[in-house]
Specification:
Number of domains: 2
Number of helices: 25
Shape: globular
Strand order of the largest sheet: 1-2-4-3
Helix content: 55-70%
Structural class: mainly alpha
Oligomer: single chain
Largest sheet: 4 strands, mixed
Radius of gyration: 26 Å
Length: about 525
């Protein structure tokens, strides 16, 4: 479990190369608090790069998925009623049906932030969580004494791969909590302490924020199995394996502390194993390597599989199992790509550092490789501490308005913002057929609105989901289904197959058409 000596030697070389004045200055407590570190600058760079640069979508990019709309309104319901909902609040297709608001903790946070500062508070929290997640990846690599430049390359690939799900949704809590949990487990593997049992109360909190707590329990189970195999291979005691197995069980029991008890686990299990969900919900399908984000993930995946083989040969079975298991999960569902890079990136960076230092070991100090090695060693210390600057910048952003483009509504690219506001009263009083994403937006615009479907695919299930897909595609039973549910308003993209049918149907007329979205009303 000790990092390779070639990497450690590079770190020792760097610690002796900093100037004496800098060493003396940084020993002063005030200097460590006031002077920004390289870790701080990385945190701030992620905020600027992802959310403020002119080339990015900005803060509104976090609102590309309107699920946050019903999360906000559910949080406000909890604030008003001091209770977690157990029945549906938003649909006329399944009114009053049992509903698991299993991310109620994030709902509550989003609802409170929205009441305090609107969408600005929601997206700012999401941005800070993503920047913290990205920073923990780098700090975990530095903790492993990787070559800094190698680590930064791997970290940027990991952040790029995970960015496919950089949205203001509950899963961003899982990204940060998983990274911290893996760090705790990595530290315990190196030097076991009682601190690892903090994962038990963390599980209680995590379970009420997002279903990603299951990834951490799986990780602990893999560790117990891997440590047992390591003990068998070296004919050692199985005590550590028993310890991790007990920890896995304790965290599993802790996850029962939620408003729904064991029913939550059964619900999540049925949801994840549903063939219908995997066939129609894009984020549950296998990744399609057609964009830059997934190409970055592909690089890490291929290198990660090689690293897993190296780890098995070195008898680090637990870490090898981590990579293989989450690589498999990421290939079966694109929503697990961020989970894979969170777990695997530091392991990949450590092995890549070994390869680099082995390759450049004979390089002179005046060569390009030697200069890069010296610069990396000199900079390592700057990633091992945190000053007040990240907190200060976040506090400044909280109180800062224009010229920063804080969102006041969902982005008009992707959502019928103007059309909905222009016809809000009529929409509220009608039975509207719209897309699941636009249904989320209708709920956000006015939580009194009842929709046919929204983003809660686990709630609507196969029956209602297929009915929605049949109507949207204009299948043979579209007219029967529309009569069954008594739709009197349709809000859809103009290119929808159903729209083309309704345009030639005498009972329907176009009320507004802006070339992108269309509103049709029943005569």
């Amino acid at each position: 479990m000790t990092p390779p000596q070639t990497v450690l030697a590079l770190g020792r070389q760097g610690r002796g190369s900093r100037g004496p004045d800098a060493e003396v200055l940084m020993q002063k407590p005030w200097a460590r608090v006031i002077i920004p570190s390289l870790s701080d600058l990385f945190f701030l760079a992620v905020l600027v790069w992802l959310f403020m640069s002119s080339g990015a979508a900005g803060w509104q990019g976090l609102l590309a998925d309107a699920d946050v709309g019903w999360h906000i309104r559910t949080g406000e319901y909890i604030l008003d009623h001091h209770a977690v909902p157990r029945q549906d609040l938003y649909s006329f297709s399944k009114p009053g049906a049992p509903w698991y608001a299993w991310e109620w903790g994030v709902d509550l946070i989003d609802g409170a932030l929205h009441r305090a500062s609107g969408l600005k508070g929601v997206v700012l929290l999401a941005g800070v969580m993503i920047a913290l997640f990205s920073t923990t990846l780098v700090r975990r690599m530095v903790w492993r004494n990787v070559h800094l430049f190698v680590g930064l390359v791997v970290a940027l690939l990991a952040v790029g791969g995970a960015s496919i799900h950089f949205l203001a949704r509950p899963h961003i809590f899982t990204l940060l909590l998983l990274s911290l949990s893996v760090w705790m487990l990595e530290s315990d593997r190196r030097s076991p302490t009682r601190r690892i049992w903090l994962l038990v109360p963390l599980t209680v909190v995590w379970t009420n924020l997002h279903g990603g707590f299951l990834a951490m329990i799986a990780l602990l189970g893999l560790t117990a199995v891997g440590v047992a195999i390591e003990a068998f291979m070296d004919i050692e005691s199985y005590q550590s394996a028993y310890r991790y197995a007990a920890l896995t069980g304790a965290c599993a029991l802790a996850s029962l502390v939620n408003p729904y008890g064991i029913q939550l686990h059964l619900h999540v299990w049925e949801y994840l194993r549903s063939d219908w969900i995997r066939s129609v919900i894009q984020e549950f399908q296998a990744p399609s390597f057609r964009n830059e984000n997934l190409l970055q993930y592909e690089v890490l995946l291929l290198v990660g599989l090689i690293v897993a083989g190296v780890l098995f040969r070195r008898k680090q079975v637990a870490e090898g199992l981590w990579i293989l298991f989450f690589a498999h999960m990421s290939l079966s569902s694109v929503r697990h790509v961020p989970i894979f890079v969170t777990v695997a990136a530091p392991l990949i960076a450590q092995e890549a550092s070994v390869w680099w230092t082995t390759w450049t070991g004979a390089a002179s100090r005046t060569s390009l490789a030697g200069i890069l090695n010296q610069m990396a060693a000199d900079s390592m210390h700057g990633f091992r501490r945190t000053s007040i600057w990240p907190a200060a910048v976040v506090v400044t952003l909280i109180f800062m308005g224009p010229p920063l483009p804080w969102p006041k509504d969902f982005p008009e690219i992707g959502f019928p913002v103007k059309m909905v506001h222009a016809h809000q009263k009529e929409i509220l009083e009608s039975r509207v057929l719209t897309t699941d994403q636009w249904g989320d937006y209708l709920i956000y615009t006015d939580p009194r609105t009842k929709v046919f479907v929204d983003g809660r695919s686990d709630f609507y299930g196969e029956e209602v989901g297929n009915q929605y897909l049949h109507m949207y595609a204009g299948n043979w039973d579209w007219s029967k289904l529309m009569s069954q549910y008594k739709f009197n308003l349709v809000l859809l993209p103009v290119e929808s197959p159903l729209v083309q049918l309704l345009k030639i149907t005498p009972e329907w007329r176009v009320k507004e058409d802006n070339g992108k979205e269309i509103l049709l009303v029943h005569r």
